[in-house]
Automatic annotation (TrEMBL):
Its EC number is 4.2.1.96. Keywords: Lyase. Belongs to the pterin-4-alpha-carbinolamine dehydratase family. This is Putative pterin-4-alpha-carbinolamine dehydratase. One of its GO terms (molecular function) is 4-alpha-hydroxytetrahydrobiopterin dehydratase activity. It is an enzyme of class 4 (lyase). It catalyses: (4aS,6R)-4a-hydroxy-L-erythro-5,6,7,8-tetrahydrobiopterin = (6R)-L-erythro-6,7-dihydrobiopterin + H2O. It comes from Candidatus Nitrosopelagicus brevis. It holds the Pfam family Pterin_4a. SUPFAM superfamilies: PCD-like (SSF55248). InterPro entries: PCD_sf, Pterin_deHydtase. The keyword Acyltransferase does not apply. One of its GO terms (biological process) is tetrahydrobiopterin biosynthetic process. It comes from the Archaea.
């Protein structure tokens, strides 16, 4: 695993939905309808995150989730971050009951 070049990162961003690079990390902010929907998203995500053994920095307040991805071992964004972002983009938003 290695740190991606700026060109590789830009190429990866074209495959993602709503992600940008901020402070050397892949960054996305998601606003859900309420806390339950945000929590459902995180609960679904954690299963794959554990399998990948690649844990995001995320911050949740009520219906908002801020996600930052980078690979500390390489000191920047790696293909693992792109892969996790792709997975997160595919998680369905499940409405609260």
């Amino acid at each position: 695993m290695s740190k991606l070049s700026d060109n590789e990162i830009q190429e990866g961003l074209r495959e993602l939905n709503g992600w940008s690079v901020q402070n050397g990390k892949l960054h996305k902010e998601i606003e859900f309808s309420d806390f339950d929907v945000a929590w459902n998203f995180m609960t679904i995500a954690v299963v794959e995150i554990q399998k990948m053994n690649h844990h995001p920095e995320w911050f949740n307040v009520y219906n908002k989730l801020v996600i930052d991805l980078m690979t500390h071992d390489v000191g920047g964004i790696s293909q693992n971050d792109i892969n996790l972002a792709k997975y997160l983009d595919k998680i369905p938003v499940i409405p609260s009951l």
